[in-house]
Amino acid sequence: MTTTAARTTAPSLPLNRLAVAGLLVLAAVPILGGAMRLGDLSVVTPQNARFVTDPVPIVIHVATSVVYAVLGALQFSRDLRRRHVGWHRRAGAVLVPAGALSAASGLWMTAAYEFPPADAGALVVIRYAVGAAMLVQLALAVRALARHDYVAHGAWMTRAYALAMGAGTQVLTQGPLLALDEIPDWTRPVGMGLGWAINVVVAEVVIRRRARVRG
What we know:
Blueprint: H1 4-9, H2 13-39, H3 49-53, H4 56-74, H5 78-83, H6 87-112, H7 122-146, H8 150-164, H9 166-174, H10 187-214
Helix pairs in contact: 2-4, 2-9, 4-6, 6-7, 7-8, 7-10, 8-10, 9-10
């Protein structure tokens, strides 16, 4: 039963729409970046030679990440859930495989490609950790769904989506550094790691806020 306090604490529909719009804007960042990366495959340069010679993992990663980013944002829409019965379940049937392929292809790219010095070392470790964590979270979300534990399912899906959207937040955490004349190599893993860390914190805040509303 939903209490009066829970109803008054629940986010308004306009606020929910604003949040979904914000997620779609954030999703546009990796989508545009991926599109540019795929477009660059037509011409071999020293920067993209590793992708041209072995394009399969990056093509899979970009394609599945686009699907995951957009569908994931729309899964938060209360409008879609109310107006289209079954939307959440049908979209989820696509979302989970897309997320798993996005994470797996990210791990594949990390293992297969030779990265420049700024992307090596600590950033490789972080990428492995993020990719593995996302796969585990998706697996836990599926297990929770099989057990009809919809609260845990939503929490794990939220965590996985937050990690996937790190690419969007990283524009904010790394963007200011691009104005510097010389960018030390250490700023790359710090900037990217901070983007993922911010999303993890935001996801936990959202999950705990849901718990308070239900309570």
